[in-house]
Amino acid sequence: MSEDQDNLTPEEREKRDKEARAKEIVEQAALPYKWSQELGEVEVIVPVPKGTRARDLAVTMTTKKLSVALKGKEPIMAGDLCKDIKVDDSTWTIQDNEAVLFHLEKLNNQAWWENVLKHHPNIDTTKIEPENSKLSDLDGETRGMVEKMMFDNQQKQMGKPTSDELKKMETLKKFQDQHPELDFSQAKIS
């Protein structure tokens, strides 16, 4: 945040943010395509004349560049990508013979893109509000960890033991069953 920004009242800051957002919307609407992103991927939709088929197009998609044109015509969009993509995992297809849909897999799937092509206007990535992840999107280990945390939180709210406490109690019970001669009635377990 700039020093100038620090001196603004909350109302002035809100006004400046609204003006910046309005400018961003106008700039993005003027692009020859629409785009959206998630942390790992970018979707780009480029309108083309109705009836266009894949064979009518000249498409270039490399790690650092993207372009689409009708054969023999000026490109509809062309330039250096703002960040690198995984070409082997990225695709393009014709949608209803009136748009080219690009699915770009980000090389760095932990970074938001400011734009698609470097020479196009930027968006403010600090204002992006990502969608909530679904448990099914997570890898097995992470999903297990999240499910355990959710279970433990739910147990605590109900005043019941967490999964770790349940495990300790089960281990103690097994030990007691194996050693009935020992008296655990006065034992304090922590």
From TrEMBL:
Positions with biased composition (Basic and acidic residues): 10-21
Molecular function terms, GO-annotated: unfolded protein binding
CS domain residues: 28-117
Localization per record: Cytoplasm
Superkingdom of the organism of origin: Eukaryota
GO biological processes: protein folding
Keyword entries, A-Z: Cytoplasm
Region (Disordered): 1-21
GO cellular component, as recorded: cytoplasm
CDD domains assigned to the protein according to its UniProt record, in alphabetical order: p23_NUDC_like
InterPro entries: CS_dom (IPR007052), HSP20-like_chaperone (IPR008978), NudC_fam (IPR037898)
Classification via PROSITE patterns: CS
Purpose of the protein: Required for nuclear movement. May interact between microtubules and nuclei and/or may be involved in the generation of force used to move nuclei during interphase.
Name of the featured protein: Nuclear movement protein nudC
Organism of origin: Cylindrobasidium torrendii FP15055 ss-10
Source organism phylogeny: Eukaryota, Fungi, Dikarya, Basidiomycota, Agaricomycotina
